[in-house]
Amino acid sequence: MDKKEQLIEIATKLFAERGFENTPLSVVCETANVSKGLISHHFKSKNGLLREIFLRTTRLIVEINSIDKTNQSPREQLVELLESFFLQLEADKMFFQFNLNMMVQPATRDVLNDLIKERSTFILEATKSIFDKIDTTDSLVKSHMFIAELDGIALNYLGIYEDFPLNQIKELIIKKYTQR
Amino acid sequence: MDKKEQLIEIATKLFAERGFENTPLSVVCETANVSKGLISHHFKSKNGLLREIFLRTTRLIVEINSIDKTNQSPREQLVELLESFFLQLEADKMFFQFNLNMMVQPATRDVLNDLIKERSTFILEATKSIFDKIDTTDSLVKSHMFIAELDGIALNYLGIYEDFPLNQIKELIIKKYTQR
Amino acid sequence: MDKKEQLIEIATKLFAERGFENTPLSVVCETANVSKGLISHHFKSKNGLLREIFLRTTRLIVEINSIDKTNQSPREQLVELLESFFLQLEADKMFFQFNLNMMVQPATRDVLNDLIKERSTFILEATKSIFDKIDTTDSLVKSHMFIAELDGIALNYLGIYEDFPLNQIKELIIKKYTQR
Amino acid sequence: MDKKEQLIEIATKLFAERGFENTPLSVVCETANVSKGLISHHFKSKNGLLREIFLRTTRLIVEINSIDKTNQSPREQLVELLESFFLQLEADKMFFQFNLNMMVQPATRDVLNDLIKERSTFILEATKSIFDKIDTTDSLVKSHMFIAELDGIALNYLGIYEDFPLNQIKELIIKKYTQR
DNA sequence: GATGAATGAGTATTCATTCAT
DNA sequence: AATGAATGAATACTCATTCAT
After folding, report:
1. What is the interface size between C and D, counted as CB pairs within 8 Å?
2. Residue nearest to nucleotide F4 (CA to C1')
3. Most CB atoms closer than 10 Å: which of A157, B36, B66, D29?
4. Residue C133 lies in a domain
5. Is the pTM for the entire model greater than 0.85?
6. How many domains does chain B have?
7. Is residue C180 pLDDT above 80, yes or no?
8. Which nucleotide is closest to B38, CA to C1'?
């Protein structure tokens, strides 16, 4: 088993669960059964490790969106996007927890600034390219609205309301975006 | 000059700007021109100070929502709520930054858990009471959607997109909620 | 109820239970329902309070030993002294705990040095005056032995062995000192 | 040069001289020419360091008592034990100072509770095994008396009387325990 | 006599990072 | 590639003391 990969996997999980600032490298290393020196060896620093993790997450997002969807109508694409969003939100809370965390915290924002910009630009453009196919009017604003809505749902589902009615919300949203 | 109030004011500002974890008490005290011991004296601990701040913020939210609005139609209330939300989002970014921060970060969440629950329950009920007057069908889910949308907008405006089209989003949303 | 007396009583108890160094004045004041400023007002400082307490304890010891015992034989006096020692050791553990504590700890020793000397000189002389009446040979050494024995018993009973056979020890000692 | 051993040695000395509570780690580290972090690294905490020291002291006591003494009569063993006690009491005051300190102070007692119990049980049994060979009647009580006597002597010699007649006491005691 | 806000020096502890092996 | 001893700056917290009221 590759110690480097092991390290990344464990660190991702712990950073998501406990927050970056609140997760000492000592805990990461103990959990991953790895010596402290190894982090500096592979990633130079704690921030280096964070950037590597964030980068990989972005790569994942890009890959998913790069699947060819030319055989789908734009509305079908939107629905599929929503379906996969709600599916993953339930299945991999950690993933969203981690990303929300990184965005909101000033300290991590500073470290990841360029990577966050890169990723959010990609997401905005990917979304807009779908909306453009439906109607170019206000497509940028609508894309922003769309993204904000999903982020807000993730935020409220993960962090605020214990009995957030995720499924009903999902239905409501899908209905909204499939109506002409 | 009340040193306790001074302390709270400065701490609120600094926690919002730099994050709670990332703001040492030494900085808070120096900025507020106050000795370290005073925090212990008034709030017992850094967490105690945080709880006091969060509590006051909640009290503010409750006060604003307690203003009598019986002379307005529910849709008018909704629009007013949206107007004041967007107004404040632009005017007092710190306020939103601080609150998002507290919600998302695991460490602060643990400290504030009970207070967060209290506040979010209040907000949900206040929102639902308006939606109920329009149409009781799905009023709870719609309230959740409404709150999530606004949170998402705050999140994207403050933390992700530098050129977030706040005004256009505002218009779009108000239009959406004034349509029958 | 006199706040000063209240303060002394509570402080004695707490210092005995938790040790002097380990008992913050804040705890003393809260327990005694008294403000912090009052200690400085009455005793100048924490050390001042300690000295007052130690002084009172000495005064108690002196008083007990000042009772006229001219109608008793020296051996009777010795037995009575032993009886009262074992009686009090069981009844007022705190008293012995406190005094042992003060003697052994370097920090408190420094504060109480003169008072400790005064008291221990008194005790030695009071004991020697009894032994002298029995036999002046080695009376000083025997007095030291006698005191050391009792201190050792207190130490082992209070601080080391949970099932210290206090009563059997008492009988053994009394037998020893009543034998010709 | 082993920094860990250096640390233990210096700390033992300082804790004995100044008391545990009254010896800041800063002083220990400066004296030992070692960084503060090293204590956390090797012993986890100040209490951890204390436990390590106490443990080693116990180990020393056990080792000394484990020397084969089958070629000595029980009374010879008792005398040898007394001789070595008085010898060490004069030579290594620190050792006794430290141990008395730990026993008497509530704060350190709590930290060392299990280790103190272990050690005192061992000492009691080692002593009793000698007394048993002389006479099994009351051997437990006599052992307790014996230990208490020595502890009391150490206490009075080290902590109370400046001109404690140690040598005369020694002779008196040895005479007592060699008499049939 | 009595209060309690305010101070500030002091202390243990945490933790990312370095470096020799 | 991997270890872990060692560092030292940073940080929250403690607590006796002071002083205006």
Report:
1. 131
2. A35
3. A157
4. yes
5. yes
6. 1
7. no
8. E6
